[in-house]
Structure formats: structure tokens, C-alpha cells
Amino acid sequence: MNAEELAGTIQEALEEGRTAAAPEALEAIRVKYLGRKGLLPRVMKGLKDADPSERAQLGKLANQLKQELGKLLGARKQELSGASGADAANFDYTLPGQWRQLGTRHPISRVIEDTAEIFARLGFTVAEGPDVETGYRNFEALNTPPHHPSLDAQDTFWLESGELLRTQTSPVQIRVMETQPPPVRVITPGRCYRRDTTDATHSANFHQIEGLYVDKCVSLADLKGTMAYFARELMGPSVGVRFRPHFFPFTEPSVECDFSCHVCGGKGCSVCKHSGWIEIAGAGMVDPRVFKRVGYDPAGVTGYAFGMGVERIAMVKYGIKDIRMLYDNDVRFLKQFK
Ligand code: DAH
User: Fold this and answer.
1) Atom 5 (ligand 1) nearest CA
2) What is the pLDDT of residue 270?
3) Is the CB of 306 under 6 A from ligand 1?
């Protein structure tokens, strides 16, 4: 091999080294050019027989082959083993591991799931209805005729089809009773919509959990006992309930249900606005007119119903001051809720 040929071969060897894709290929190149039976020893051995005019040049090239190819193969080996993480000698076991961040449950989901779990112990199942509801189920079937003044507060998002975005989860009561005979024991969580201007305590889009229990001889005492149990399970063992008279078109009598403040124990603090009580739910005994609408016999069954705001419960339970924090999707806020 003359000097010119050797120079060409060195370029080929370097090119092979640059393009080799696996550590095994690098090793094969090393054996082929630098190994005991490879090119380099052959060139070295041939030096003494070489044309004296080329000898120096050949020696220089042999040296270049050894240095440059050796260096290139070393660097490529590091590169390849680094990429696959396979080189145990270069692996630092003391580096922190790579954690996949686990998400956390949103406070709204927590309240809904915790509530469903508490009521499941009392035999309640979960039912759901659509966000787009008929005016009939959202109002009329709930004993709220179109001229009723309580509609003012719920003048809402109407669709061109005549349907609306439901203002409450109460229409799901109607859906459940339309499809099954008594007894009924369900809670129905879901999203509701009202034409409210957003501020720290209002959102045009919020969640409610409805409850409905229909059977023979269900009384207001059952409602009270159930709410007291729910209050203790959700907020803490010393929380009590009180009922105040109220009005809802679909219940008679109607009440508003308050929990005693879990923060101050009823003494008065900023969470309960210094009253010792926190308004949690609207409730009452299902109006016989509602039973008639769904084909139930008002003389044969009685029932109670309630509806409560999920955001409101989340806010008092976790001390959240502004409802908008629940929708900002700020991970720094959300990751506090495990
Ligand atoms: N739907 C009512 C509201 O949005 C809450 C409510 C009150 C639900 C009384 C009920 C009930 O089931 O019986 O204000």
C-alpha cells in the first residue's frame, strides 16, 4: 500500500467511525484497523520494506491512523453509551430520579366524590342528567310555571331549540322518576348555569348536588337525620345542622339547611360571617304536584329532596376565599388538594 492509498483508507476508516450506529460496530472498526491483525500492524511491519522515499510519509500516516481513529472511536463510544444509558461506569446513582408528577383531585371533584361516598353508605346511588335540559323539566315539571316570580333569578341561557342550560340539578329528579317507579334514593351531581355576573362568590357556571328520596312514609325527620349525618361525615364530628323555613316551588314544606361552623364551632368567625352557621342546602318534602307530573301517586308515597352548591361547600371546607380560584387552573393552588 503506498502513501496515497493509505491516506484514502484512513479517510474511509474515519468516515466509518463517524457513521457507526452501535457500540458493536465501533468495536468491529477498531479490530479492522487497529486490532492485532488489523491494518495498522500490517503498515508498521511493511515500513522496513517500503520505498525509502515514502517511508517517512507512511510512518506519519500510520501514526495519524492510530491517533485520530483511536480518539474518534473513544468519543463515539461515549456518545452511544450515554444515549442508551447502558454504560454503568458512567452512571451516577446519586443523581435524583426523574419523577412523573402525579395529579391531584380538584376540590370540586373531591366534594362530589366524598359526598357520593357518604350517601352510598345510606343506600343512595348516583344519577346524572344532561347540561342541556328542556324548559319543562327545569321548570314546569318542578311546579314552576312560566309566570312564576322565582324564574327571574333563573332567567338563563336559552338555546334556539327552545332548550336551556339547566339552572339547577333538580330536573334530574324528574328524569329519574320518569324512568323508574318508587322507591327512589339518588344523588345527582352536575354542572349548572345561571346568568350571574362573576365575582368572588358567583360564577355563571357552577355545580350542584341534588338528593331525592321517595318511598312510603318518608318524613321531614328522615331529611333532618340524613343531613345531620352528612354534615358530620363531611365537615367533622361536632358539626350540627339547623333548618329554617323557606320557599321552593317543588317542595312543601321547604327549608334551608345550615351547618354549624366547623371553623369556630359556632362561636362566630369570618368563615361563617360571625353567625356561627353556614348555609349549605335548600331542601324540603317533594310537592305532591311534582309526583303527579311524573305519574307517581301522591297518596301512596312521600319524599324529601335537597340541593346544594358544590363550590360553596368546597370554599367553606377548604377556606377558599374566591370562587374563581376553582376555575383558574393554577397548579400552585390545585396541588394543595391531595
Ligand atoms: N334547586 C334549588 C336551587 O338551585 C335547590 C333545591 C332546593 C333543590 C330545594 C331541592 C330542593 O331539591 O328540594 O336553589
Assistant:
1) 307
2) 87
3) yes
Q: Is there a single domain that holds both residue 162 and residue 28?
A: no
CA 14 from chain center: how many Å?
53
Q: Ligand 1: does its nearest atom lie under 6 Å from the Cβ of 248?
A: yes
For the chain (338 residues), the mean pLDDT of every run of 10, in chain order, is 90 93 91 93 90 90 92 89 62 84 92 98 98 95 86 78 94 98 98 91 94 98 97 94 96 96 90 92 98 97 98 93 94 90
Tell me: do 124 and 82 sit in the same domain.
no
Q: Which atom of ligand 1 is nearest to the CA of 208?
A: 4
Question: What single string gives the DSSP state of each residue in 222-247?
Answer: HHHHHHHHHHHHHH-TT--EEEEEEE
CATH code for position 230 = 3.30.930.10
Same domain, 236 and 295: yes
Instruction: For residue 154, give the ligand 1 atom closest to its CA.
Output: 4
Determine if ligand 1 sits within 6 Å of the CB of residue 210. yes
Say what the pLDDT of residue 78 is: 85
Q: Cis (ω within 30 of 0) for the bond into 52?
A: no
Domain interval for residue 58: 3-89
Distance 267 CA to ligand 1 centre (A): 28
Ligand 1 center from residue 336 Cα (angstroms) = 31
| pTM reported for the whole predicted model | 0.72
